[in-house]
Amino acid sequence: MKAIWNNTIIAESNDTVVIENNHYFPKESIKQEFFTPTNTHTTCPWKGKAHYYTVTVNGNENKDAAWHYPEVSKMAKPIEGYVAFWKGVEVVE
Questions:
Q1: What is the pTM of this model?
Q2: Which helix (H) or strand (E) holds 79?
Q3: pLDDT tens, position by position, 40-91
Q4: Transmembrane residues, as ranges (predicted)?
Q5: Mind listing the domains of the chain with CATH numbers?
């Protein structure tokens, strides 16, 4: 799977986990140079506290376009530390 934004591959992996129609990519599969942590957090009742990244490609920012759960509940262990996308980031095979 590939995550693409602004015509650039920002993550690529053969080991994504799909939960709630989102592909979660292993953290080591994201291209770190495009990701900046933000102060945004949300809470999912069954996964835990999500932390967000702004994605920046070619000078264009996509605020909070990626999220991850550094610590998860027992039910969400398969995505602990994995990164998912939204806000126009395309996930394709």
A1: 0.94
A2: none
A3: 999 999 999 999 999 999 999 999 999 999 999 999 999 999 999 999 999 9
A4: none
A5: 2-92 (2.170.150.40)
Which amino acid type is present at position 28?
E
Query: CA–CA separation, 41 vs 51, rounded Å?
Result: 5
Nearest to 90 by CA among 26, 14, 12: 12
| Contact yes or no for 47/76 (Cβ under 8 A) | yes
Token reading at 40: 């945004």
DSSP string covering 8-74, please?
Answer: EEEEE-S--EEETTEEEBPGGGB-GGGEEEEEEEEEETTTEEEEEEEEEETTEEEEEEEEEBSS--G
The CA angle 4-10-12, to the nearest 5 degrees, is: 90
